[in-house]
Amino acid sequence: MSSYDQYQHLTFDRPSEGVLQVTINRPDRLNAANKRLHWELGKVWLDVGTDSQTRVAVVTGAGKAFCAGGDLDMVLDQANDFSQIVETMAEARDIVYNIANCDKPIISAINGVAVGAGLAVALMADVSVIAEDAQLTDGHLRLGVGAGDHAAIVWPILCGLAKAKYYLLTADFIDGKEAERIGLVSLCRPPEEVLPTALEVAQKLAGGPQHAVRWTKRALNHWVRNAGPIFEASLALEMLNFFDVDVIEGASAIKDRRPPRFPSAANHERDEG
């Protein structure tokens, strides 16, 4: 029996028998992940796995966002801090692997913007339902770090390497309709239908043959596990970027709502000149 009392930034409801709704709850910050929430987003799936009342989990965001990635204050605090970066790397691994290895289906109801760690949760889910007007971006390149955590492991599986490279290298935003068109998500719906659709799918799975449902997930997620070495390399390279000056400029530019002027690009221009 799992207890969810320890969670500060996640709320829990049971909308129907066998279904647990997990809501990311920092709406005043677009549900961006501070240090505590980043840890919670990895830990919660272990508790879901041992929860005898839960057969399917649905994860969504409070307010108008799903999860706007890492809180910029957290990013700036951990830059050049080896111990914090090691902790963040371990938590990022937990988010990806704990979702993949949870034997119960996880459905994401992507009600609004999803970036970085939030997008990892959204796309690592077994079924994803997105609002037509929701905006997604991996976002790592905007920050000045490599596209690690979920990006290298799951984007190529979902939408193919060509689209994955384009969107991860440019960090362009993509809306819900385009995300469905390229196969990045399962279903696209009008905003008011996103959560009801996700709950409908959850109820269907909760009433299905449980061993068959769980073993189908387990078998399919070998595609994800087989990409584990790619994920590990991408995550390590992402963390290495937190010792580079570009991440300070990237985070500051996003915070100040201005275009970034990455030092590595400026140095490269001088070298070419």
Count of alpha and pi helical runs: 14
Q: Which overall shape is indicated by the principal axes computed on the Cα atoms?
A: globular
Main β-sheet: number of strands, strand sense, barrel status?
A: 6 strands, mixed
Question: Can you give the helix content as a percent range?
Answer: 40-55%
CATH architecture: Alpha-Beta Complex
What integer value in Å does the Rg equal? 18 Å
Strand content: 15-25%
Along the chain, the helix and strand elements come as EEHEEHHEEHEEHHHEHEHHHHHH
* Mean pLDDT over the residues: 95
Given helix and strand content, the structural type is: alpha/beta
Which residues sit in consecutive blocks of at least 5 with pLDDT less than 50?
none
CATH class placement:
Alpha Beta
Using DSSP, what is the number of strands?
Answer: 10
Tally of discrete structural domains: 1
Enzyme class: lyase
Pfam families: ECH_1
Function: Could possibly oxidize fatty acids using specific components.
Protein name: Enoyl-CoA hydratase
Task: Give the topology, please.
Layout: E1 10-16, E2 19-24, H1 35-49, E3 56-61, E4 65-68, H2 72-78, H3 82-101, E5 106-110, E6 113-115, H4 116-124, E7 127-131, E8 135-137, H5 140-143, H6 151-159, H7 161-170, E9 174-175, H8 176-181, E10 187-189, H9 194-206, H10 210-220, H11 222-226, H12 228-240, H13 245-256, H14 263-272
Parallel strand pairs: 2-3, 3-5, 4-6, 5-7, 6-8, 7-10
Antiparallel strand pairs: 1-2, 8-9
Helix pairs in contact: 1-3, 3-4, 3-12, 6-7
